[in-house]
C-alpha cells in the first residue's frame, strides 16, 4: 500500500483526526454519549491497524474523546508510542439528546431528518446539542491542542460527526455541506495548523497505507 508523505512547515502542528473503529451498532443506532459501547472484534482489529499505520511517525501526544470506543481505538497506538492518552471532552461525540440510542432507520423517517441532512446549521437535536455548537466545540479543542504542540505531530481520536464538522471548518467548507464529507470507521484525516492561524486538510478519510513526515 502507498505511503502518504507530508512536509509541514517547521512550526506547524500536524493533527491526525482518527475516527473510532466499528462497534456492534455502527450504522444502525445513534449511540451518542451513552456509556458502555465498546469496539467489536473488527473494531479492535481496526485499532491495531491504525497503530501500525502511524508507527513511522514521531507522535508526541495522543488525545481521545472520553467514550469507551475512542479510548479503545487509541489504546494500541498509545502502547506503541508509550504515551498516556489524554482525555479531552472537546473531542466527544455530539449530544444527540432525546435521539440518543434511537435506530437510524426510524430517525430517517422523521420530517426533521431532512434538516439534519440538508440544513444542519439550523438544527438542534431535541434536548441536545446543535451542529453549530458541536463544530465550535470540536474546532476550539483542536486549536487549543495545536497551540500546545508547535512543530509536533499529535493524534486525536474522536467520532464521525465531530471530525466531519472539523474537516468542513478547517477546509473552508460551509457547515450545510458537511454531510457530504465521508469519515469511515478507523479512518485517518490530517490537518495542518499554521502559527498564523491558517489551517489545511492534507488528507481526508484515509483507510490504508502508512503515514510519514518528511
UniProtKB/TrEMBL annotation:
UniProt enzyme class: hydrolase
InterPro entries: His_Pase_superF_clade-1, His_PPase_superfam, PGM_Phosphatase
EC number, UniProt record: 3.1.3.3
UniProt GO MF annotations: phosphatase activity
Entry keyword set: Hydrolase
SMART domains, per database record: PGAM
A matching Pfam family: His_Phos_1
Keyword Transport: no
GO CC, alphabetical: cytoplasm
Protein name: Phosphoserine phosphatase 1
Protein's organism: Corynebacterium occultum
